[in-house]
Amino acid sequence: MALQMSALFSYVRAPLFTVPLPCVRTDIQRAGIKFKHIFTPGSPQLGGKPATSPLRGHIHAAPRAEKLLTTTRALWRPSQGSSPSSSPRGKSVWLGRVALGTALGVSAAALVQSLHTGTLAAMALKVNLNSAEGDWKETKDFLLSLSVKDRRQYYRTPSSVPLDDVKAWTPTAVAAGSEKSRYPRNEKLDQKISLYSGDITQLEIDAIVNAANNSLLGGGGVDGAIHRAAGPLLKKECASLHGCETGEAKITCGYGLPAKYVIHTVGPIAQGGVGEKQKKALRSCYKNSLQTATANSARSVAFPCISTGIYGYPPEQAVHEALATVREYLDEHHDKLDRVIFCVFLPTDKELYLQNLPLYFPAAPTETTVKSKL
Ligand code: AR6
Q1: What pLDDT is attached to residue 112?
Q2: Pocket flag, ligand 1, residue 71 (CB < 6 Å)
Q3: pLDDT at position 69 over 70
Q4: How far apart are the CA of 199 and the centre of ligand 1, in A?
Q5: I want to staple 259 with a disulfide (CB 3.0 to 4.6 A). Which of 36, 180, 254, 311 is the partner?
């Protein structure tokens, strides 16, 4: 956008045009006023829909990309030259077309906007999440610029589960005969926790966590499922990260996943038993993943049961490290996260979380308890 704006103003300054500067500006302004009503959000010329682009802040009337691509192509045909600003000739051809467009009565703002949207539309036509041939950086920038609604057409999963369909956990009383809650009640957290039973790759949220290995190049278990669903560009981006230490976390785009980001963390291998080192590493996985999420403004995050599959961490011990770390992080940073989802795949893990959640996220004291305190 900045490039295109500077290109537009360099048109105004270009010696190519002999019209005095204030006059050109006035012409553009007049054209803008005159034709403003044609290109307003929701107008049929713009696809008849209100702006849906995530770049709404910059583009006041984001049209449907395909329609404006035609306009943009008419003004700037890449086959006839390079991009608007990449060569002097390309620039003057493009600038001439901007002038022509303006003369024809299309407002300068609409032109810049259509060129911008045209760039997005051109990128949209190039995106192929099934092939490893594409440029992962370009694809990532493009996907991250889309709203959730606009990104849906790129999902590679057979279905997706929006955050609204993932119920917030209702705090339940600690089971009779079980130990007391390990943490005090914090009502700010009531709506911020979920227990979800199913496939993490289907969650349409900001970030899902991957239980990866040190290479970050994919593997079995949940790692394999995430790479399969995201498509080959995920591995390409992962390769650029040069691995990950145990307990650390690194973030990538979600590509064909309904999740915007994947946070890759490497759990400890616990097949030889669990000691302090493994406990600490597992807690680091959860904490570093949450920090990575909030550092990237991801407000909803889902965790699988890290290390409890191939890496052999006993699930009945791992559940406590997971719950305690999330509870402590949320106590300090509840304003930065809307939802943390514990995604369980096995019925036995679901049972473990149901049993232990009340120890870390306790319910409000019952009426009888309150009365007895008075
Ligand atoms: N959605 C949610 N959870 C899942 C899914 C899924 N689609 N698939 C499996 N799980 P594991 P680890 C659960 O073995 O123990 C890989 O090869 C599964 O039931 O995936 O940390 C990596 O490359 C279990 O509860 O991860 C590493 O080499 C949990 O995910 C190694 O495995 C974690 O099991 C990491 O082993």
Answers
A1: 67
A2: no
A3: no
A4: 11
A5: 254
